[in-house]
Write a structure and sequence with these properties.
The chain has about 250 residues and is mainly α. The protein has 6 helices and 2 strands; from the N terminus they run H-H-H-H-H-E-E-H. The protein has a two-stranded antiparallel ribbon with strand order 1-2.
């Protein structure tokens, strides 16, 4: 995708993705809420699996894009990678909030409380806060190049905590259940697996839709800032010429 082609936040790709999500969403909800039977131990609360786990996977993916884009920005110094990192971080924070909320709701009937200072939950909260800090750095009133460089470094360092979150249940004793997919062995089957797969598809496509839209929005905002800057420079040059005229 060439930058010059971006004239609005909408594109053919986002239109197709949007239609797919709209078409798949009712099927996903029907199977997740009605077709899949209640769990023998967790009952109806297990349906949060179809929201919680997909949101985890999309969060990881979004922050992985931040890592890669940040590294590419430090290497290439091109605005494209900086904007992609920023857009992906925003998407990741949104889905991280969803996984924290769904995990807390799921924890209430399972553990008897919405929150425990469990290694997985605590490290996830730290991950959420660290990427909020990353977004805050991107909003700082600094020279754009300096700001982008600092954000890129933070985007790389923040991914360390993503690794901690993923392996927290292996490194420490945890109330949190093991990974749904452990070394390729699927722990769910039947309508649960089908509903989960639909949920993963819906969440992934939704995340991609948000990422493209947000990237295009950030690009258009940057172009507007450049136009304003060019206008300000031209105005200053005009004032300077007026002052030196006899």
């Amino acid at each position: 995708m060439k930058s010059a082609e971006i004239t609005s936040t909408k594109s053919k790709t986002t239109t197709v993705i949007g239609y797919l999500v709209v078409a798949m969403l009712p099927i996903y909800l029907a199977f997740g809420l009605a077709v899949a039977e209640p769990h023998s131990e967790q009952g109806e609360s297990v349906r949060l699996l179809f929201v919680h786990v997909p949101s985890v996977l999309v969060t990881y993916s979004a922050f992985l894009v931040v890592l890669f884009s940040s590294a590419m920005y430090l290497r290439k110094k091109t605005p494209y990678w900086d904007l992609l990192a920023g857009a992906s971080a925003e998407v990741g924070v949104v889905f991280c909030a969803v996984l924290l909320f769904s995990g807390a709701v799921w924890g209430r009937p399972t553990w008897g409380t919405y929150w425990e200072w469990d290694p997985r939950m605590t490290s996830t909260a730290v991950m959420f806060i660290s990427y909020l800090g990353y977004l805050a750095v991107r909003r700082m009133d600094l020279n754009p190049t300096v700001r982008s460089r600092r954000a890129a470094v933070l985007g790389i360092l923040s991914f360390v905590n993503v690794i901690v979150v993923h392996y927290s249940i292996d490194w420490w004793r945890s109330l949190h259940q093991g990974r749904t997919f452990d070394q390729g062995n699927v722990q769910i089957e039947g309508w649960y697996l089908f509903s989960f797969s639909l949920g993963l598809a819906v969440f992934t496509l939704s995340g991609l839709w948000l990422l493209i839209h947000r990237f295009r929005t950030l690009y258009l905002e940057r172009q507007l800032d450049l136009v304003d800057l060019d206008s300000a420079i031209a105005e200053r040059k005009s004032e300077a010429k007026t002052k030196v005229s006899p």
